[in-house]
Fold:
Amino acid sequence: MIEILHLSKRYGETLAVDDLSLSIATGEIFALLGPNGAGKSSTVKVLTGLSKPTTGAVRIAGFDVTEQPLEVKQRIGYVPENATLYESLTADEYLDLIGELRHMEREKLHTQRDELFALFDLGKDDRKKLLGEFSKGMKQKVLIISALVHNPDVLILDEPLSGLDANAALIIKEVVRKFAHESGKTIFFCSHVLDVVERLCDRIAIMTHGKLVAIGTPQELLEESGELSLERAFNRLTGGADIERSTEDVIRALSQE
Structure:
């Protein structure tokens, strides 16, 4: 469903993504992880058509994201890490706008919209408020709903749990599972919440300094790193700080008078 072929992305002298190749199957929940500056956001921007690759190619459902952008965008839903909504619209008006842009039949749009609002516990009174009055978590719910309302083949999630309360986070995790494993949709997932990634994703790729350094199931990554948790495996595979030594240094500094 997603093919990334020798993708490189350069900003001036900075090589953000360096010869990345990945193949992601239909119905798979796939995570791309990496420390800040690893190249994740640059990869996601190319996947969603927001940025063009410097070299290489990306195909979604067989369509090239550079040469066939409309065909790709018809088939994806995208939840960016930091999104700006039209805050002068109500939640209902915003979803109507999204549906119009996607040429959805109005009756189908309203049915999908109402079901998703109910799922995320946004009642009629909330839906009549301007989005500028919403909390960060409520805006995130609207953003997720707008990515799901057209029932996309591929759902691209960049830190989707940001700002959500525990109940809403649980709902989105269950939606992701069923969306992939029961409906055959493909999920491309970026998150710093590694315990969620470990429980939710079928396979994980880890990047650092623009390059792919590991790929496999959560269990395969644990075995490769020799660690007992994905957090520690991630730290080892990306060349992070020595956890024990860093912890001792902090405790020692705090205990000094």
In short: The longest strand covers residues 14-24. The beta strands are 2-11, 14-24, 29-33, 55-60, 63-64, 76-79, 154-158, 186-190, 203-208, 211-216.
